[in-house]
Amino acid sequence: MIRCLKTHIDKIVEGVSAGNLFPEMPTIHFSPQEDSCSMSQKVWKTREKKVVTMDIGAFRAKETVLQSQEDRAIYTCQDLKALAPHRCTFGYDVIVYVGYALFVHCRSEKEIMKELATRNISISDREIGFLGKKFVTYLAVAHRESRQQIRKAMELRGGYILHLDGTCEADSPHLFSGLDGIAELVLDNVKLPSERAEFLIPFFERIKQQYGDPIALVHDMGKGILSAIAKVFPDKPDFICHFHFLRDIGKDLMEDEYKQIRNRLRKHKIRGLLRQMARSLEGAVLQDHRAVEVLKAGMMKGGDVTSFSEMPAVSAFALIHWTFDTSAQLNGYGFPFDLPHLLFYHRLKAVYALVEAIRKTPLRHEKTHRPLHRLFRSIKQVMDDPALRKSATRLDERAGVFDTLRKALRIALPEGKNGLNDDGDGTDMKTIEEKVKGFREQLTSDRKLSKRDEYKKMIQQIDTYWEKLFADPIAVHTPKGVLFIQPQRTNNILERFFRDLKRKVRKRTGTISLNKTLKTILSDTPLVKNLDNEEYLNIIHDGCDTLEQRFAKIDSNIVVQELKENKKGAGRLPPEVKKMIREPAFPEKLGLLFGCKQN
Predict the structure, then answer these.
(1) Residue 509 burial (10 A CB sphere; 0-12, 13-18, 19+)
(2) Closest CA to 181 of 237, 226, 141, 234
(3) Phi and psi for 107 in degrees, rounded to 5?
(4) Is residue 281 located within the same domain as residue 305?
(5) What is the C-alpha to C-alpha distance for residues 468 and 584, in angstroms, rounded to an integer?
(6) Least confident of 171-175, 317-321, 365-369, 433-437
(7) 291, 426: one domain
(8) Three-class HEC string of 403-465
């Protein structure tokens, strides 16, 4: 706690329990420090403001302001300025507490309200949202004021590898970020209408001006990004993220057939039919515990036709749920790496073949087998669909070719379990390059596949991006000597960050769609990712012990101005316009202004 505040609190309270310090709001007097006072200074005015801090909650700060009789200079209390921004109620420690609670610990406004209430701090959810924006703005100003120190730290590591990526939802702006792939620090952010080159170029030029040229760049295959990089960083090593490369190739190769399978399954309404059947069997299955035990025992013994005839209901029930239980065979990569609709079709096919075989046994006429007959009839319409069968056959072939490329690139492997956090295994780049070269040769030498358009396009994509796929270690000169830095194979650092950001917002707000959030979120919000980096915190602290003290050194007028600018660009309608467009027959009234006659 600041010396001045602690002194006054010690005078006011002794032995009062924490959490309920003051039944009534206390008054604490503040005046300029003694070393700044002189005999020529007189009281200019006194003023009061309410201040809320984490230590004691709300109190009334009564400040004495002095004026020099010699040069008319004004002297205020620096201790009070260090507690809370000018003309603001909540202290820097409250701003930091709210910022961490919102963006690091993912707590909702309601949860934070309850937590602060235990500290004698009364605050609304709207005030918490505003303090969150204040926290991001103060952090952004501290980040900008520390750019030279950040740049020096990167130079000591040999430079930085610039990872570029963006995110959006529906018609929201694109939140685009640049990150140092070596230290995994967010360097700069911007909100753009789209990822077209004309919007990206000024952003890339700003990063270049602030941090110098990167050692290399890593990004996805967006045309706008490629064009902008060619313009701003024409001579720098430029690499395509292997994960993005694979994903784009897989989409081009399999998307049409995959959509056909999904649409045909949807047309047959097979999922709904099976769920309805499972619900109709559920009561009997849950009541007949013996049937479940007999089925389990029979499977452990390797099969028993006699026991099987006693439990067709539980068998049909279990088979239906097995068709839906595909998660164990999916790896969490998403399409085109995971093909849940194709997997569902193959499970239907397996169930159909099994029940068809059961129908051919001597027990096929048993009345108790009706659930299995019903299951067979439900699936039969799917199995008899020639378009669906043809698409599944084609997709199986293409998925096999695609999996071979995945294995050659040694990333997002079919047997992998890292999901979207997969950065590739530790295979050296030369070996990977040779494996991909072998894959290409195998594909081009196949007389059947090499003549088909989808594989011609696949080969063309590999050839187009070949030089951007395989990065040798880059030699850089540092104060400690020459270092060799290997660019990361993926852009998953930023992908993970954006997923984490969205997950935190969804957890905090309970909203699935982030369209509105991305429209109103401050562009510098991604800087909160840096808060878990100790080196970064030491840099932006700039000699201060805490983030609160660092924020107190920032001119609060800069923060106020930036918040105003961000509010202008938030896409909100001015109140006058909102009121006007809600007028009855607004278009007709507007037309009259232009001399349009009503029909």
Answers:
(1) middle
(2) 237
(3) -85, 150
(4) yes
(5) 59
(6) 365-369
(7) yes
(8) HHHHHHHCCCCCCCCCHHHCCCCCCCHHHHHHHHHHHHHHHHHCCCHHHCHHHHHHHHHHHHC
Cα separation of 469 and 168, whole Å? Answer: 26
172, 505 contact by CB (below 8 A)? no
Q: Answer whether the bond into residue 32 is a cis peptide, omega within 30°.
A: no
Residue 556 belongs to some domain of the structure = no
Question: Any alpha helices (H) in 41-188, and if so which ranges?
Answer: 78-83, 92-103, 109-117, 125-145, 147-156
List pLDDT tens digits, range 180-204.
Answer: 988 889 999 998 988 999 999 999 9
For residue 25, what are the domain limits?
Answer: 3-134
CA angle (173, 176, 182) in 5-degree steps: 165
pTM (whole model) above 0.85? no
Asked if the structure places residue 198 within a domain, the reply is yes
Let me know whether 292 and 208 are in one domain. no
Name the least confident of 423-427, 546-550, 592-596.
592-596
CATH number of the domain that residue 164 is part of: 3.30.420.10
Q: Which of 264, 271, 268, 247 is nearest to 391 (CA)?
A: 264
**pLDDT exceeds 70 at position 302:** no
**pLDDT band, residue 403 (cuts 50/70/90):** very high
What one-character DSSP code corresponds to residue 510?
-
The answer to whether residue 15 scores a pLDDT higher than 60 is no
Instruction: Say if CB 94 and CB 53 are below 8 A apart.
Output: yes
Residue 147 has pLDDT above 90, yes or no: yes
